[in-house]
Amino acid sequence: MGKSEKEIEEWKEYRLSVLEQKSKSDDDFEKYITFIASGALGLTITFIDKISPLKESIVIWVIALGWVLLAFTLFINLLSHFLSSKYNEQTIQDIDDEIEYDNLIDRIDNRNRIISRLNLSSIILLGLGIISILIYTIVNAYQ
Questions:
Q1: Where are the alpha helices (DSSP H) in 1-143?
Q2: CA-to-CA separations, 109 to 104, 113, 123, in angstroms, rounded
Q3: Which has the closest alpha carbon to 111: 100, 103, 121?
Q4: Separation between Cα atoms, residue 117 and residue 124, nearest integer Å
Q5: What pTM, to 2 d.p., does this model score?
Q6: Distance separating alpha carbons of residues 105 and 117, to the nearest angstrom
């Protein structure tokens, strides 16, 4: 037995609300990655300036690695945001061009895969950057 028109309409509304929540979540994700990475960069500069000046520190390469990883995090996050916007434009164009449904879905899936990989890379680089900074801080705090 199929779904009634009311049930179909309810599922469409539910699907739309899930898509809206996903969009908000994606926006929040990008904001939080940016805030955390830039905040970590700012905190380490303060740490070096006030607590452990570079000329008195050891394993300076570890903090440099952390900064590079955080900078890459910010870059990849920016790239992900840019591509996401471009991919939305491409999807709209594909819809306007009346691309065959299966082909459209394949294109959207491929685009989403790229964005997901970039987002995962951002998370990994952020984590590695923070770990590097923590190692530098711990080593130099006990020196």
A1: 5-50, 60-96, 101-141
A2: 9, 6, 21
A3: 103
A4: 10
A5: 0.82
A6: 18
